[in-house]
Amino acid sequence: MGVKKDKVREQAEEYYLDNIEATQQQVAELFNVTQKTVSSWCTRYDWNEKRINLHASPIKIKQLLQQELLKVASGTPGTLNADSISKLMSALDKCDKKADPIVVSRVLKDLANFVSENDPQFAAKMTDWMKKFLQHRINIE
Predict the structure, then answer these.
(1) How far apart are alpha carbons 40 and 13 in whole angstroms?
(2) Which residues in 4-25 are b (16+ Cβ under 10 Å) and which e?
(3) What does the pLDDT profile of the chain (141 residues) look like in tens digits?
(4) Does the predicted model carry a pTM greater than 0.70?
(5) Cβ distance 97 to 73 under 8 Å?
(6) Using the 8-state DSSP alphabet, how is residue 74 labeled?
(7) 25, 35 contact by CB (below 8 A)
(8) 126 with 116: CB under 8 angstroms?
(9) Residue closest to 78 by CA, chosen among 64, 58, 61, 60
(10) Where is the Terminase ATPase subunit N-terminal domain (predicted)?
(11) Which of 38, 60, 127, 137 would be a feasible disulfide site paired with 24, CB 3.0-4.6 Å?
């Protein structure tokens, strides 16, 4: 793939991920490629999973809820009722207090790789503690 096509794919991916309502066909038309090409990119580069992860993250959801609250505070009618907002905020607060063991494991692996590149001896000492911490997180979840 040429450099120009890589650039187009990267721009199309960014647009597709940011605009959850955009269809593959709309992306194809916008970036002057075929729908088959966009479909292929979606499959090869996991665009749909990335899109879901981007828009379903607690941080993103909180941002959307905060925007909704700002609308209501400024006198604009909200799209959600107050009870729904309250329930969603409560659920997100509970998520903030928990650490998914899968995420913890990924972070610990990343930390281990970083430390081992800089201080392999210290990384070896940390390994046992990181395993214990991960087991601790699993037990409390």
Answers:
(1) 12
(2) eeeebbeebbeebbeeeeeebe
(3) 567 788 999 999 999 998 888 999 999 999 999 999 999 999 999 999 888 877 776 677 777 788 888 888 888 887 877 787 778 777 777 766 666 777 788 889 999 999 999 999 998 899 899 998 888 887 876
(4) no
(5) no
(6) T
(7) yes
(8) no
(9) 64
(10) 8-49
(11) 38
The one-character DSSP state at 99 is: -
84: its two tokens: 């729904």
Cβ–Cβ under 8 Å, residues 112 and 130: yes
Q: Name the nearest CA neighbour of 108 among 87, 123, 89, 86.
A: 123
- Check: CB of residue 24 under 8 Å from CB of residue 15: no
Structural tokens at position 11: 């721009």
Which structure tokens are listed for 45?
């580069």
**Where is 27: in which H helix or E strand?**
helix 24-30
